[in-house]
Amino acid sequence: MTNALAISALTFGIQAFVTLFVILDPPGAVPVFLALISDASPKKRIQLAWQGAAVSLAVIVSFALFGKLILDYLHISINALQGAGGLLMLLISLELLTGKDSSTDSNKKDVNVALVPLGTPLLAGPGAIVTTIIYVQYAHTTNMKLALAAAIIAVHCVIGLTLMFSTKILGIIKDSGVTLLARIAGLLLAAIAVEMVVQSIKGFFNL
Prior knowledge:
By secondary structure, this protein is mostly helical. 87% of the residues lie in helices and 0% in strands. Helix 1 runs parallel beside helix 7 (142-166), helix 2 packs across helix 7 (142-166) and helix 3 (42-74) packs across helix 5.
């Protein structure tokens, strides 16, 4: 019986890891991340990579533990959360597309990059939050809960490593490549933001 539970927990953990990896999509976050940290020093870039992963981990863990209670208490629907995340990402994408720098304090800018939009809502967005809450509800045994916790941590380790190694690209593409990357990242981020807003509207009106 113990072995059966262990196998079940292992399968549950693998499923959670794969699902969260696909939704969090570390490779998809790379262009936006590189565009936002292009002015930082190499050491700072690595720090921001892990800081962004840590912020995403903190958000996911918080919602895993208290997500349903928080949303119910504040009477916030997933659709509203998705719409707010989309609008926030749209603002960031416009800055990338126009090359506008909303902050003259580089330290402040670095912190904002790790928190918003990288940590949330780009990585730990509404989709990841909802998925985590659902997996928590299906984790009926202690082993399954431990497997889910391990999956969440493993995904964020992969995120941190992916972002950290992606910083090597900046030394190859130079300034002109960074500018082009920023525009492409802004376009992709805008498309993601619009999709989030559209899905939010559809959810509100049951379309």
